[in-house]
Structure formats: structure tokens, C-alpha cells
Amino acid sequence: MRPLLAVALLLLGVGTGLAAVALHEYGWGLLLTVAATVATLLWLPPGWWSRLPFALGWAGLVGWVVSPRPEGDYAIRQDLAGYTLLAVAVLVLLFGIATLPRPGGGDRRVRA
Question: Full-prediction pTM beyond 0.90?
């Protein structure tokens, strides 16, 4: 069940990232997609099967779109909105990785 949920969250991240790329040129579109992304990241529990697939889908799509197209142009312009979208993609990925549970999952404090 968890792999199916991870695939669904990965696709949700791709869809949200696609919406962010499509609407980032409009001020309201950038704010709306960033707010939806932050709300989803905070709502999802941290973990390999929940928050990380969403973050990978979101940042992966933005990273894929940043690469130059055969025509020589880019889907994300080099302006404030474009750089903001790139920064948000990096922060989404870092947040997804940084909130992963520690290996072992137990309390690792030293007891005297």
C-alpha cells in the first residue's frame, strides 16, 4: 500500500510543480502554487513514503523544465519570478530530505 501511496504523491508533486511552472509568471499564480506546496508539505507526515515523494516530484519537474529545450529557449524566464520558482524548488527538496526520520527511529541519547 505504501508504494502505491508514494507513486500517487509523486504524481501529485509533479502536477503541483507543473501548475507552478505554468503560473509562475503571474504574481497571484506564484503565490498560490507556493502556498499550496507549503500547505501540502506541512500536512504530509515526514517520511520516505509520504513527504519525500511529493517533494521529489515537485522539484524534479521544475528541474526538468529548467533544462534548455531544443529550440534554445527556456520554460522559466530569467526574472524575479523565475528565480523565485527555482529557489522554492530547492527549498522544497531540502525540506523533504531534512525532515526524513533518522535511521533506527529510536531515542539515541547517551544515558549515563
Answer: no
